[in-house]
Design brief:
This protein is an all-alpha fold. The protein is built from 18 helices and no strands. The chain starts with a helix and ends with a helix. About 45% of the residues are buried.
């Protein structure tokens, strides 16, 4: 069970969350720039913490306790067949319609259980970048050409970035694995059949996916699922409750919740701080903060190296909730943004953000995080240049 000190930390986080959720920003009488920062924090608390992050924390806690280290290393380890490990990691986003922050607990879970840095960072990038609805929405709203370029670019990106991270940090990662610097606080996964563990994780991923299913009036099947998503989520929660009661003992449940809390207390404070900074500098879509929107539009016209680099860096710093990058790009393109910079922002934006960077640093350290960020920005810039030159 949680100790008194940990319970106190949990209460503090809960109080901060409730303040962020209910604070009357419009009536606080503060400067508009700070109002925008607080509005972004409130929006984040209301739309992402309960439905996105909490399920993701529980999945990460389950990975830490019920997935054996050997299984993670077998499929995503440094010595795993590269075709297998990168194939698994690079297409993970097709079932995880999550943002750059929600993927973090899952990434931390597999990395600390023994995944190599290459497959782990491929998973980190692909999670928010390659979900099916985002690709479809991009193609319908921004054009088939850009939708295909985004899908292909994201898959290639995840593999190339993962391979480069593996090559750059090969010796360090070899020492990390050989020295046993991994999360070993797991339960005993061998006492349950594989099918039970598979069903258990499938139900939790289903809860995460359907609870966050976005509405899209232009696609009938997505609209239909959106209309019944809470029924599906409720059924899955009921199934999960039955599985927990029948399949797991008290000790296993305590270990699971303790690991879940470990990820939450590490990640949530950094995310809250990062959201405040992102809101202060860039604001929400359609709301201006310290950096005026017209500056961004003027800087990303055409297909110059600078325009693509600026789009990549801007995308990396901004926070995009799932699917919000599409209407943002629609507005920017309408205001004169070039096709190359548009793709660069699409490839850099969903995978990175200021909150995301802070948390990645807490897991990987400063050097590896900087290299990851640079790789994403550089590749997004190059892709934008190539696309803009070919189709601009």
């Amino acid at each position: 069970m949680l100790k008194i000190k940990e319970i106190f930390k949990l209460l503090i986080l809960a109080i901060i969350f409730l303040i962020a959720y209910y604070m009357p920003v419009s009536n606080m009488g503060i400067h508009p720039v700070f109002t925008e920062s607080l509005n972004m924090l409130r929006e984040y608390a209301r739309e992402h913490v309960l439905l996105c992050l909490i399920p993701a924390f529980f999945i990460a806690g389950a990975i830490a306790n019920f997935v054996s280290q050997q299984s993670v290393i077998r499929y995503l380890g440094t010595k795993t067949n590269k075709i297998l490990s990168y194939s698994v990691a690079s297409v993970s986003g097709t079932i995880l319609a999550v943002c750059s922050c929600t993927i973090l607990p899952l990434f931390a879970g597999i990395y600390t259980r023994g995944a190599g840095i290459g497959p782990a960072t491929a998973f980190l990038y692909s999670g928010p970048a390659i979900n099916v609805l985002a690709i479809i929405l991009t193609a319908r709203v921004l054009g088939l050409q850009l939708g295909i370029a985004r899908a292909l670019g994201a898959i290639v990106f995840s593999i190339v970035i993962g391979l480069l991270m593996h090559l750059i940090f090969y010796k360090e990662e070899k020492n990390r694995i050989s020295n046993g610097n991994l999360n070993t606080c797991a339960g005993n996964p061998s006492d349950k059949p594989l099918w039970k563990i598979t069903v258990y994780f499938a139900v939790m991923v289903g809860i995460l996916v359907f609870a966050n299913w976005g509405k899209d009036e232009s696609i009938k099947i997505w609209q239909f699922i959106y209309g019944i998503k809470w029924y599906i989520t409720g059924v899955l929660l009921l199934i999960l409750s039955c599985m927990l009661y029948i399949w797991f003992n008290k000790e296993e449940l305590v270990l699971w919740t303790s690991s879940t809390w470990g990820f939450a207390k590490q990640i949530l404070p950094l995310l809250f701080a990062g959201v405040l900074v992102a809101g202060l500098l860039l604001g929400r879509p359609g709301h201006e903060a310290l950096i005026p929107n017209q500056w961004i539009v003027k800087l990303v016209g055409g297909n110059t190296l600078w325009a693509n680099l600026f789009a990549s860096v801007s995308g990396a710093l901004m926070y995009f909730a799932t699917l919000t990058e599409v209407p943002i790009l629609q507005g920017l393109i309408g205001a004169g943004m070039g096709k190359g910079p548009a793709l660069a922002l699409l490839l850099a934006g969903p995978a990175l953000s200021i909150p995301n960077m802070l948390v990645i640093r807490s897991v990987l350290g400063t050097k590896k995080t900087l290299v990851y960020i640079i790789l994403v920005v550089v590749m997004a810039t190059i892709s934008g240049m190539i696309y803009g030159t070919t189709f601009g």
